[in-house]
Amino acid sequence: MISSSEKILQLIKQGEGLELEFKEARTRLNRDVFETACAFMNRIGGTILVGVSDKGEIKGIDPQHAAQMKKDFITAINNPQKISPPAYLSVDEIMLEDKLILRVYVPESSQVHRCNGRIYDRNEDSDLDITDHTNRVATLYQRKQAIFSENKVYPFAGLKDLRADLIEKCRKMAGLWMPGHPWPQMNDLEMLQSAQLYQTDHETGKSGVTLAGILLLGQDNLILSVLPYHKTDLILRRIDLDRYDDRDIVSTNLIDSYDRILAFVGKHLSDPFYLEGTNRMSLRDTIFREVASNILIHREYLNAFPAKLIIERGQVKTENASKPHGFGVLQPETFTPFPKNPVIAKFFRQIGRADELGSGMRKMMRYGKAYGGADPELIEEDIFKIIVRYPDTMAYPERPAIVKITGQAQVSTRPESGGRVEAQVEAQDRAQVEAQVDIDILRACADGPKSSAEIAGFLGHKQLSGNIRKALPRLREAGLIEYTIPDKPKSRLQKYRLTDKGRQRGVTS
Questions:
Q1: Which of 38, 158, 172, 499 qualifies as a FRET site for 433, CA 20 to 30 Å off?
Q2: CATH number of the domain that 469 lies in?
Q3: pTM score, two decimals?
Q4: Cβ atoms of residues 498 and 479 within 8 Å
Q5: Cα 32 from Cα 127, distance rounded (Å)
């Protein structure tokens, strides 16, 4: 396995080029470091090695100034007066031939960036100022929109088509996650522009909300009018392997989708006790927080392939459409992160629901084996897959085998005890589902009477599911809910409200 130092040495031997730049510095960064970072983001990304001469000689930096140089770089790259829009890049320290150098990995950005008000592009081993070349700037904008579909502008979509409550929620989350965050002081349009969710199409000259903005903050009818096939399919398949034991089809904005994914996982997966040092931590939540954000952030949304999260026996598998930048199983040692939807990723980081690019995978690999006994697998193809093992203590009976005898299909028999185990498991799983549906219905009615359709909507369904249809009479018979029009059970105005017993049950549930 090649170490990081060996990889850097191999890069240095290749010499400067379209994706590699050397910067010689000892105690402070040169101004052109930021011009190169800007050019890399505008082109196809690259690596900056600080402490290496133009000829590829490892000069190193002064170790006593390393911390300040890193701080200066991060401060400047996050300063909109220096780099606009700001970027979020990390700096690594690497020892080569007993000398310290700094490595800056710069991913390709979905935005067109400026450094000190100027637009730079990369050509071979140099940075070109193309600000005054109108055709080249227009081509750059067009290429960004073609590569990153999240930037597609919808001129018909404005603030009225977004959820004001969701914008306010994210504004507060950003302020709580990052004290001093500018969003709480901005109005809605300023916040959208700051997050690059409201842009101008430089080909047509029209402005509007982008696809990223619609997916993150749009009303459901707007999202489905733009992407009719948009959904994340959450499936539990442990007993009924041919169909499913539980299912939630999520076709709403990405903020609420994230919550629904984690709720589904929390409902069906255990969370064993785990100490890191002297602190208790949730392995399940830590791992699947990354899984959930990965499904939503790194999906190619113009591909109609539905994203899936499937809880199977002993493992969870996810699938989502992707624009791969390599094929095969990703290895943490050689993995180079590439942002599929940088604007959506950045928004998730602003509200505390995602880590910096690449760190999420490392966190998943770090805790995955402790959780499920095996390292998670991340497989990059046209369909990106994640496989995470989980501690599964449930006893599963073997499925009946179908055998051919004289041309007829015959189901093989199993010992009676196997049938009892299967029945016990099915009953246990069914009871858990029913109990959860009952609690959800009581919560739905807690703030006032609800029709059956309103209850289904509260639970995230577009129409009544079989579980809800069965639960409503069950709760009525238990005296927990009652009709608002008791003498006309089939009235189109019929609603359900909590009884005193139901209110007590709802509070304690």
A1: 499
A2: 1.10.10.10
A3: 0.59
A4: no
A5: 9
